């Protein structure tokens, strides 16, 4: 694979990028009228990494149920102990494919074992069940995905000096300029690809750490919040492959530097209605009782990775107790000032780690705040 970390470091390009890749012209080859490429995407047995495979179709599916169920070898994805275990991908959500374009599609799938039971990391099933029970409450989720861009060769953040560390400075956040912002072309390309795909991306900004970024998805309705965020993650990783960049969503990739979270913004119809602040306060009270149980769900390592981030500094709350407040970023739960002023809207759960499974977080918030389980 051609690597081009050099360009982002501000050095002369070491090799072709996606744009001037000698194979690039073949990407734009038109497909025969009756053909399209479907890329099936799924979460593997780590609960954290994605896999994908392609299939040519000779029809345009309208809904996921139109699509064929595909099989894959679960023993190569940490999803089965037996060798060559045939497991199954069930299509759940369809997006336009910014990589193959034309009529081609990306398909978010969930996974089933040889007995057609959901696999251990198929958290979508439970989440979809919870959502179905309260669909009339119209739960919306908006997720802020933070991440670091790393050179895949040595897992060093882009633009960081080869020895030591960059200057500690407040200039990186929303920074402009080659000395403080790294990988903008990649992140802007991702933004446009998400819009093209039909993913409701609403924003992008450079975060507090150099080469740390945040994009925001949503609001998405119920379980689709998980589909939308996982597909956005997929697209960014495919684009980053072209540069030899690894997208790190570790909650605390570098000790003593900013961690990465996935703030989950949540509202129901009642919260968005007149005086919805009362509903918001009720929900936050319930979150207080479930706090310790929730912490275990906020990263795929039982909360252990995220605990390195929830230390009460670097703009994150301490994990021990749930704290809530208006405007204050050091709280676990934050209510935006204008929402406190308007007395309706949504609240922000700042606890989940950047590597969280959004299906798990959505499920937990629905069951605790809406279903009272
Ligand atoms: P912050 O001030 O915490 O950095 P951002 O602007 O980064 O906030 O992100 C705001 C998030 O809130 C977005 O993901 C957006 O989709 C989401 N959001 C906006 N309105 C609602 C709502 N009514 N319910 C749930 N999420 C919402
Ligand atoms: Mn095969
Ligand atoms: Mn944000
Ligand atoms: Mn942020
Ligand atoms: Mn936030």
Automatic annotation (TrEMBL):
Pfam families assigned to the protein according to its UniProt record, in alphabetical order: Gln-synt_C
Gene3D superfamilies tied to this protein: Glutamine synthetase, N-terminal domain, Glutamine synthetase/guanido kinase, catalytic domain
Gene Ontology cellular component list: cytoplasm
Domain of life: Eukaryota
Swiss-Prot/TrEMBL keywords: ATP-binding, Cytoplasm, Ligase, Nucleotide-binding
Family according to the record: Belongs to the glutamine synthetase family.
Record protein name field: glutamine synthetase
Organism of derivation: Helicoverpa armigera
Protein encoded by which gene: HaOG208371
């Amino acid at each position: 694979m051609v690597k081009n970390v050099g360009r982002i470091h501000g050095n002369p390009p070491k090799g072709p990028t996606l744009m001037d890749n000698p194979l690039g012209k073949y990407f734009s080859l038109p497909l025969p009228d009756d053909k399209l490429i479907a890329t099936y995407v799924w979460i593997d047995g780590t609960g954290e990494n994605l896999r994908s495979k392609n299939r040519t179709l000779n029809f345009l599916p309208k809904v996921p149920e139109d699509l064929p169920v595909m099989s894959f070898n679960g023993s190569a994805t940490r999803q089965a102990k037996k060798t060559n275990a045939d497991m199954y991908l069930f299509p759940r959500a369809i997006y336009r494919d910014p990589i193959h374009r034309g009529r081609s599609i990306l398909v978010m799938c969930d996974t089933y074992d040889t007995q057609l039971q959901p696999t251990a990391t198929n958290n979508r099933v439970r989440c979809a069940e919870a959502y179905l029970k309260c669909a009339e409450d119209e739960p919306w989720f908006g997720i802020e995905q933070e991440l670091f861009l790393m050179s895949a060769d040595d897992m060093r953040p882009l633009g960081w000096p080869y020895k030591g560390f960059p200057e500690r400075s407040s200039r990186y956040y929303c920074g402009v300029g080659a000395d403080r912002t790294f990988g903008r072309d990649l992140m802007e390309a991702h933004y446009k690809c998400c819009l093209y795909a039909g993913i409701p991306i609403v924003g992008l900004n450079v975060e507090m750490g150099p080469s740390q970024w945040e994009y925001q998805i949503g609001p998405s309705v119920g379980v689709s919040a998980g589909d939308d965020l996982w597909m956005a993650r997929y697209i960014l990783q495919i684009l980053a492959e072209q540069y030899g960049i690894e997208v790190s969503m570790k909650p605390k990739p570098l000790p003593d530097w900013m961690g990465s979270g996935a703030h989950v913004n949540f509202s129901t119809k009642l919260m968005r209605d007149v005086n919805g602040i009362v509903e918001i306060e009720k929900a936050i009270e319930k979150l207080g009782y479930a706090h310790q149980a929730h912490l275990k769900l906020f990263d795929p390592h039982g909360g252990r990775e995220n605990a390195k981030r929830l230390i009460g500094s670097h703009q994150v709350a301490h994990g021990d107790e749930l704290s809530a407040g208006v405007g204050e970023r050091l709280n676990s739960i934050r209510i935006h000032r204008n929402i406190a002023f308007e007395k309706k809207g949504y609240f922000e759960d700042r606890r989940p780690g950047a590597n969280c499974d959004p299906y798990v977080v959505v499920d937990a918030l629905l069951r605790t705040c809406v279903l009272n389980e």
